[in-house]
Amino acid sequence: MSQHRPRIGVMGGTFDPIHHGHLVAASEAAAQLELDEVVFVPTGRPSLKQHPGVTSAEHRYLMTVIATASNPRFTVSRVDVDRPGLTYTVDTLVDIQRERPGADLHFITGADALEQILQWKDADQLWSMAHFVAVTRPGHTLSVEHVPVGAVTQLEVPALAISSTDCRARAERGEPVWYLVPDGVVQYIAKHNLYRGHHE
Ligand SMILES: Nc1ncnc2c1ncn2[C@@H]1O[C@H](COP(=O)(O)OP(=O)(O)OP(=O)(O)O)[C@@H](O)[C@H]1O
Ligand SMILES: O=C(O)c1ccc[n+]([C@@H]2O[C@H](COP(=O)([O-])O)[C@@H](O)[C@H]2O)c1
What we know:
One of its GO terms (biological process) is NAD+ biosynthetic process. The protein is an alpha/beta fold. Helix content is 34%, strand content 16%.
């Protein structure tokens, strides 16, 4: 009897903060690609993020746990948060594969992030470690060249023009982030006074 090979989505992100764009992308990927689970992996120290003073990994991890808690298919992994040094997807995929031997991994990213994938660390190794899923994102049209045939699937998701940058700017100005991020994340941001006094 053949055993079911678990189909696992891996949604990596800085999640500073996690917002409904991330959650809709993961949910839609899970439905369309028939994933058994989507593992959210907050970055430890993102290698390419430009904004000053990225919020501590522990805050970003906890906001991700709060945002995903109600969905039985969503989990959160600490592999990137706990690994010292800069975060690279090649390391993320090795660690997730070790935790879930034999799983069929699908790395989910927005079209904007995927366009830079050839500049990621050990890019040529990534294709054999996971399938890559580029979700559509308002304001970005995907153009990836020079990737192996069949390595990337483009997925149309309901457009939500939400970004973490905008959420941080709103919180800094004292404007509402209700309904852009889950309710528990709104409350977490207020409780810990995140994003006040930052300058982009
Ligand atoms: N609204 C959205 N729709 C679809 N994909 C998204 C959306 N927002 C973010 N993503 C994707 O989710 C992944 C993680 O995103 P990230 O945590 O960097 O959020 P972000 O909103 O892009 O942050 P920032 O504004 O700080 O750059 C990336 O691959 C990104 O492209
Ligand atoms: O491996 C790399 O070199 C690399 C470079 C930039 C981004 N990534 C990954 O892409 C995901 C989205 O990153 P970001 O910075 O847009 O939040 C996250 O999982 C990062 O670890 C990975």
